[in-house]
Amino acid sequence: MKRLDWNVLDEQARRTALARPAQLRADALRQSVEQIIATVRERGDEALFEFSAKYDRCVLEAIEVTEAEFAAAEAALDPALKAAIHEAAARIEIFHRATAPQPVAVETAGGVRVERVLRAVARVGLYVPAGSAPLPSTALMLGVPALIAGCREVVLCSPARADGRCDEAVLYVARITGVHKVFKLGGAQAIAAMAYGTASVPKCDKLFGPGNAWVTEAKLQVSADPEGAAIDMPAGPSEVLVIADEAANPVFVAADLLSQAEHGPDSQVILLSPSYAMLDRVAGEVERQCAELPRCAIALQALAQSRLIAVDSLEQAVEVSNRYAPEHLILQVAEPRALLDGIDSAGSIFLGAWTPESVGDYCSGSNHVLPTYGYARSYSGVSVASFQKQITVQELSAEGLRAIGPCAAILAAAEQLEAHRRAVTLRLEALDQMVLNQSVLDRTVSERLT
Amino acid sequence: MKRLDWNVLDEQARRTALARPAQLRADALRQSVEQIIATVRERGDEALFEFSAKYDRCVLEAIEVTEAEFAAAEAALDPALKAAIHEAAARIEIFHRATAPQPVAVETAGGVRVERVLRAVARVGLYVPAGSAPLPSTALMLGVPALIAGCREVVLCSPARADGRCDEAVLYVARITGVHKVFKLGGAQAIAAMAYGTASVPKCDKLFGPGNAWVTEAKLQVSADPEGAAIDMPAGPSEVLVIADEAANPVFVAADLLSQAEHGPDSQVILLSPSYAMLDRVAGEVERQCAELPRCAIALQALAQSRLIAVDSLEQAVEVSNRYAPEHLILQVAEPRALLDGIDSAGSIFLGAWTPESVGDYCSGSNHVLPTYGYARSYSGVSVASFQKQITVQELSAEGLRAIGPCAAILAAAEQLEAHRRAVTLRLEALDQMVLNQSVLDRTVSERLT
Predict the structure, then answer these.
(1) B96 flagged as catalytic
(2) Out of A81, A95, A389, whose CB is closest to B376?
(3) Is the dihedral of CA B4, B6, B7, B13 positive or negative?
(4) In chain A, fewer beta carbons within 10 Å around the N or the C end?
(5) Looking at the domain A27-98+115-233, which fold is it?
(6) pLDDT tier, B60 (very low <50, low <70, confident <90, very high otherwise)
(7) Catalytic residue among B69, B153, B327, B357
(8) Cβ contact A193:A185 at 8 Å
């Protein structure tokens, strides 16, 4: 890990210090993905079988997971893992229900009722990668909010192993979160199938989930096409930034840095501390703990592009963190809440010594599908709202139109939109006419009665 | 307007009936916009002056609006328009405050506190078009939620008129909604300036607002670049779908259709009704009212690609509407609330005879920046949430980690992420050690005391 001192760096060096590993949208990748998408759109399921043979190296009999496979997966599942899945799902459900948007209705003027109603995105596609290992936790993070939102059709794609099966835990999660169809598909071809539909795979309105460079490129391409599908957010490699003071436990800090570094060679980890001694101790611990990890080689590659940065204060650490806008931010300091208000941008924040980042990956209840690569400046992580649309509704009584119609007419006139103005004034005139007719009627009646 | 009967159409004809006017991302447009963006990135302000001269046909002395211009604009503003702006702003504020996300904190297990906190997107760019007429209402729809969200730096771009000035009402709205800087910039060059920054224009994290094909293409391009900026949503031409039963007033229905048609030649309007007589009456009214409009020629072009469609019931009308997913949906029926639950996809909905779509454009309180072109299937209109990020926060006590740590460790093991597992188990071991030390200490103390 590179050691730097923030206060001796000039602006250019600071920029370099916080630069992410470049994610070039290389032309070759872009074109390959365009080709895969075009082929799936043209030849449908047939293309999917071919791509699975070519890229996932498995010859599939059918791309959709069958009832028998679901049953076999459940039967094969370790009971402790099954229990952990249910436990995590329950906590994810608590937090996601608590943060789900609620309907709203207000009167903005007498007789003017304005509402926000919620509707689930009808057809959603969840992508669960299985590159180096299965990720049942990602299936939970997508399946639970889709279920709470009430999406009508939930499709999940995850690449099959070489034996032609999907991971048992992923299938089990799909089942308990009410996913309607699971397909053994990975990579750009899975994204293409869900965005455009094939004979087997339903066309989806919005796609969710992380993935490798091919998946990410495919998501970008289908989201730029109005005939394609929306996406949750752009994605990049996972990353963590830790702020530690001298009270932090270097063993814990090192473990947190490594839990991010083991994700992949392009993961990035950054430690900020006002304590040189802490930077030294953590560097030593990282080296020691890394040697014991099965994914040590991957972690070492990630660590090569990672940084230990000395800052002059915790306030400066917060400034640097905001500038970086990390996916995960760990505050291993004596008073983490004192720093929280100053944090502008991060995907998810972990406070104090007893909150390792990996509890957020699995079971604290928050979502682990988060903005990376600086996107935390403008994007939020996945939540129930990601699976819903918020529709506004307005209903005016005659009184309401009388109250606000003149304002609309003046603004429409200022914008030289005469038809907009008339849609209001025609109605106001009709109302006046109705009042007039009523008063004539009233007079006639009262004359007859007298 | 084309007359169609939904129930005699086959699937292909139904698709054609609901097809939007094609919005081709023509290669020529794409390349021109790429060129403009590259030039702005390379030559900054200098390029902006040149593009303004070339595209807006105005020679600017400065691109930033000065204090003197703001003051002159306010002084020149018609008091009735000023009052209407304040009235509209107040109603927009009521609704947007009522629908703003709130912080949430829950315990998902004993000692596991999980929160959602809100942070404004720090630097936002608002685009207010001025193609055929000024649009102060769009400035309101973007400025009010940005103000409520508390964005640190709000930049607004709107093209200058040939006299080198911006519209007075737009400047006045910018002032009262707390916009920090206004630039006389339009088109792709305005988007490029806000996405990447120049010496004068601050770099923004997220861009908002409607625009023509150039603006839309530029927004797409900068949003696909991690160095660029996020955007509110993809955009297309404005559109309305009206569902009318025989109780509807054809004069009102025609006025609503025309208020959409006058937006531009590529606007689309659709009327669905189970009553042939209503379709006839509205067709006649549209013709009659259109002739009286100053923008009649534009409306006629839009009407040429619009549709009057006979359906067999209001239920079928809802089905067809959901399939189309209109930006604006007007329910001119006797019992509009009876249809509301069935609506899956729409940007904003208008209920009943006294709710013209144009009140939503200006002053009912809802936002008029809405998903068009079928994007209402997966996107929502602009709201305070569009200007914020929702960050999750978790804080575990030692008790909390004991409660949920084992679950995280089991899931990490299933995913073969050993460093994730150890970040938890190292801490649990440290806790056990602390308990052991404490009990040794307790024993020693009690032995000494006895």
Answers:
(1) no
(2) A389
(3) positive
(4) C
(5) Rossmann fold (3.40.50)
(6) confident
(7) B327
(8) yes
Contacts of A398 in chain B (CB under 8 A): 354
| Bridging pattern class, strands A328-332 and A123-127 | unpaired
Q: Are B156 and B181 in contact (CB under 8 A)?
A: yes
In this structure, the strands spanning B388-396 and B112-120 are antiparallel
Q: Judge whether A328 counts as a catalytic residue.
A: yes
Give the contacts of B355 (CB within 8 A, at least 6 positions apart). Answer: A394, A395, A396, A401, B330, B364
Closest residue by Cα to residue A308 from A280, A270, A253: A270
Cα(B390)–Cα(B392) distance, rounded to whole angstroms? 7
Q: Is the pLDDT of residue B313 over 90?
A: yes
Taking the domain B2-21+236-363, which CATH number applies?
A: 3.40.50.1980
Between vectors from CA B103 to CA B99 and to CA B107, what angle results, nearest 5°? 135
Q: How many CB atoms lie within 10 A of CB A100?
A: 17
Asked if the C-beta of A360 comes within 8 angstroms of chain B's C-beta atoms, the answer is yes
CA distance A344 to B304: 49
A241 contacts in B (CB within 8 Å)?
A: none
Note whether A411 contacts B234, CB cutoff 8 Å. no
Residue among A81, A224, A263 minimizing CB distance to B414: A81
> Are A354 and B255 an interchain contact pair (Cβ–Cβ within 8 Å)?
no
Residue type, position B183, single letter: F
Give residue-wise pLDDT tens across range B3-24. Answer: 999 999 999 999 999 998 776 6
Give the C-alpha separation, B236 to B326, whole Å.
11
Alpha helices in B99-186 (DSSP H): 136-149, 168-176
For chain B, first and last CA: distance in Å?
100
**DSSP H/E element including A281:** helix A276-291
Range B265-280 average pLDDT: 95
Q: Is A23 on the interface with B (CB under 8 A)?
A: yes
Q: Whats the size of chain A, residue-wise?
A: 450
Query: Residue A347 and residue A328: Cα distance in Å, rounded?
Result: 6
Q: What integer pLDDT is reported at residue A189 of this predicted model? A: 97
Closest to B364 in 3D by CA, of A396, A399, A118, A390: A396
Q: Does A117 touch chain B (CB under 8 A)?
A: yes
B420 known ligand binder: yes
The fold for domain A398-449 equals: 1.20.5
pLDDT in tens, chain A (450 residues): 889 999 999 999 999 999 987 766 678 899 999 999 999 999 999 999 999 888 887 888 899 999 999 999 999 999 999 999 999 999 999 999 999 999 999 999 999 999 999 999 999 999 999 877 889 999 999 999 999 999 999 999 999 988 889 999 999 999 999 999 999 999 999 999 999 999 999 999 999 999 988 999 999 999 988 899 999 998 888 999 999 999 999 999 999 999 999 998 889 999 999 999 999 999 999 999 999 999 999 999 999 988 999 999 999 999 999 999 999 999 999 999 999 999 999 999 999 999 999 999 999 999 999 999 999 999 999 999 999 999 999 999 999 999 999 999 999 999 999 999 999 999 999 999 988 888 888 888 778 877
On the question of a common fold for A2-21+236-363 and A398-449, the answer reads no
Decide: A405 and B359 in contact? Cβ < 8 Å. Answer: yes
Number of helical H runs and strand E runs in chain B? 16, 14
Q: Is B368 assigned to a binding site?
A: no
Per-residue pLDDT, A220 = 92
In DSSP notation, A172-241 reads HHHHHTT-SEEE---HHHHHHHHHH--SSSPP-SEEE----HHHHHHHHHHHTSTTS-EES------EEE
